[in-house]
Structures are given as structure tokens and as C-alpha cells.
Amino acid sequence: MKANVHYLKKSVLCFIVFLILACNSSENQKIALVNIDLTNPKEVKIEVENFTNSSGSVIIEKINDDLTFIESENEGWLALDVNIPTAGRYKLEIHAQNKGDGTVNCWIEDYYDNKDERQYNITGNISFENTESKFITLGKDGSPLNSGLHRIKLHYNKSVIIDWVKFSLIKKHDITPKTYLQKTVGKNWKIVWSDEFEDDFIDTSKWTYDIGNWGWGNGEEQYYTKNRTENARIENGNLIIEARKNDMGNLWTSARLTTRGKASFLYGKIEFRAKVPHYKGNWAAGWLLGDEYVDELSWPYCGEIDILESVGYEMDDETGKGIAHASANSGGRYFKLGNQPTNTVEVLNMNNEFHTYALEWTPDSLKVLVDDNHYFTYSDTSSEMTWPFSKPQNIILNLTIGGGWGGYYGIDENTNSQKMLVDYVRVYELQ
User: Fold this and answer.
1) Of the residues 143, 172, 201, which one is the last residue of a structural domain?
2) Catalytically active residues, by annotation
3) Which of 97, 277, 308, 418 has the fewest CB atoms below 10 angstroms from its CB?
4) Tens digit of pLDDT for each residue in 3-50?
5) In this prediction, what percent of the chain has a pLDDT beyond 70?
6) What is the CATH number of the domain that holds 252?
7) What residues of the chain score a pLDDT lower than 70?
8) Tally of domains within the chain
9) Are residues 158 and 241 in the same domain?
10) Are 294 and 210 members of one domain?
């Protein structure tokens, strides 16, 4: 490596150049240049020779004024500083070359300097075989990025040649315009918001589609699509979320609907009636996520309440007897710390009969029920770290394939489709 040298690619475009000094480290160091193309503010392209650190020996190769690349000698990572101008969901791409045997797996870690010492994988594996000494561009869609400085690491599992990394805005972050604040004192529950799924099409005044295949923090396999009836539609008064195998050039496609950008909710009773699939490999969920979520650094501080989680491998294929999971995640108590408050209950015939899953949420407790059977309570309101649930949350419905939990025992090879059916979603207040 040529230490303390940087190259600035010539261009007729106008760039803002941010000069950022690398932090002190015993590892390789450089000065980083972060370029934002003013002619295309939705795109940020980083030449990898402007790295701030690397895990081991790398070689900078300058072919001409238009091509400089990094060649690694083995597995490792490059650290880069990226200034994201707009919060939203991004396509993340890598322009690279694999001239060896076998598969190269790359992935991008966000906020590697985070205070919790966590690894935020925002792409999942970006894999490619021998490229016959040619550069190719590969990437993932939908990665969440807040505006501002992101210290990232580009990881690779073996020798690879890398030219650049690009961040292209797919969709700006949805700001939720309305919050429903429910009364929690009274005798009777009254509906204040609902979707009965009686129309011909999904009501986009109530629901936003999350899109992409970046792994969603869990190494999931599906690509979530938008406005695609094969993956999300209404039939016979039910919302159907369908995961489809070998679809649109992806291993799986599916759908994830959220009220983010439409409405958020604070307190009250949130209820939905659903059937979930039994095939091994699925992970069906109806849950709440804090409206403050923007990217992975937001979680779990924004809060998460799981009203229903179900994984297919826990369900009996013949009887449909399965397990419903309820839990609450906060900055001080979440599953990666091993202290997540959670509980389970057996549910008969989860896949062939509708069951009612509900949350009763007050300023001092969370109670989760299945078919009016109360089986989970959480009430640690001692601090914001354990109780972020005094702030609004969004409703999410999704069907995942694979991932660290749903795919723990693999994915059923004999099915090409899995479906989650939802009869209604309702929000109540006490009166």
C-alpha cells in the first residue's frame, strides 16, 4: 500500500468535497474524500481508494485518470466515510471484480463506531463468482440511511478488486403526518381507526409499502415489492400477503405493509385477525415499530412491540398447532442483550382458522392477548431505556422468508408459495 496518498478522480461534474481526517489507529490510514454530485443529489458515489482504514494489506492500482481501484490480498474490510444528504431508503451498489475461484461475499456495515458495539449489516451478502477480469456492479435495495455522516465498513471474505461504492436514493423517509392518541380510561372499547379490507385494492391512504432485499437486519431472503398484487392483494374481504419462490429474479418475493407515513398510534387496543402459514422457513408478523425509526441506529431505542410473531418450523403441518410469540424491545432490554421480555402461547390450527391477536397498551403497561387469552405483560416504566412506549408507533404486517429465526432450520423445498391472511386491523380507545 502507498501510505498517505490519495487520488481525486477528474470529472466535469461539480462536486462538494468534504475532507475528513481518519481517526488514530494502528491499522492502515488515509485521508478520505467524500463526494456529493450536485447534478444528482439523490446519488453518492465513493471511490474506495479514499478509504480511512483497512483491516490488512491492500494495493492501490491507478490505471489512468478515470480508473483507480483497490485490490485486497485476502479477506478483510475497508472503512469509508459517507455523507448522506437525505434520509430514506437507498440502493447500495458495489463496482467490483472477482478474478479468482469461488464466490466473493461482500457486505456493508453502517455506524461501525456505534456506542453499543453492534454490527449493523445494511446489505446482507452481495455475492458474485469469477467475473473474467471484468468489473461488474451488484447491490441491494432498500437500505435505510439517515441524513448525515455514516462511518461504514465494506467487508469481503476473500481477495477482491473494488472500484467504488454507490448510494442511490430510492425513496425519501416517510414523515408520519397524523398520530392517533387513544383514551385509556373507560368501560368499553370503541374503534377509532381500522381497515376491514373490503375494497378491491389495498388502501394506500392507510398503508405504505416497504421495499427491498437488504436483509432487514436479520439476513432475510425475500425482496419486498410495492404495489404488486402477486405479493399483496385483497380477496374475499381479506388482505393476502404472499411470499413467492424464484420470482422476479429473486429467491423469494413478499410484502411488508406499514402505516408509517400515514398514521401512528399511541395507546389503546390494537387488534388484528389473521391466519399464518405452517411451512418451514416462514416468519409471519403483526407488530409495532417506533415512529422515530429512520435507520438501524434508531433501533431498539425507538421501541418495538411484537403482537404476533410465528415461525413455520414451530407449527405442526397436519394440525396447524403452533406458537404465538409476544415481546417488547427497548434500548435497555432487547433480544441481542439476552434480556428481552417475551412470552409464548400455543395456538390451535393457526394456519386454517382465523385467530385474534391484540395489544392493550396504556401509559404504564403492555398486555398481549390471543383470542382474549392474556399471556404477556410488560410494565417496566422506570426509564426511557426500558419504556420508549410513551411515543407513537406504526403498525406493520409482513411475511418474511428465511432470516436468523425463520430460516433457522432451513426453508421448505417443496413449496413455492406461502400466505398470511389478515381479516382486519382495528385500533380502539376506551370510552
Assistant:
1) 172
2) 304, 309
3) 97
4) 332 333 333 333 333 323 233 333 333 323 334 444 566 999 999 999
5) 90
6) 2.60.120.200
7) 1-41
8) 2
9) no
10) yes
C-alpha 145/C-alpha 169 separation (Å) is 9
Q: What is the pLDDT of residue 11?
A: 34
Please answer whether residues 359 and 305 qualify as being in contact, where contact means their C-beta atoms are separated by less than 8 angstroms: yes
Q: How many whole angstroms separate alpha carbon 135 and alpha carbon 326?
A: 46
CA distance 267 to 340: 21
Per-residue model confidence (pLDDT) at position 40: 61
pLDDT at 57: 84
**Of 388, 421, 363, nearest in space to 236 by CA:** 421
- Asked if residue 115 and residue 30 are part of one domain, the reply reads yes
Q: What's phi and psi for 50, nearest 5 deg?
A: -90, 30
**Beta 268-275 vs 264-266: how paired, if at all?**
unpaired
The range of the structural domain enclosing residue 53 comes to 15-172
Q: What is the pLDDT of residues 162-211, one digit of tens each?
A: 999 999 999 999 999 999 999 999 999 999 999 999 999 999 999 999 99
CA 27 to mean position of chain CA atoms: 31
Q: Which of these, 394, 405, 11, 4, lies nearest to 206 by C-alpha position?
A: 394
Supply the pLDDT for residue 41: 67
| Domain boundary residue, one of 152, 172, 192 | 172
What is the DSSP code (8-state) at residue 361?
Answer: E
What are the two backbone dihedrals, phi and then psi, of residue 403, each rounded to the nearest 5 degrees? 90, 175
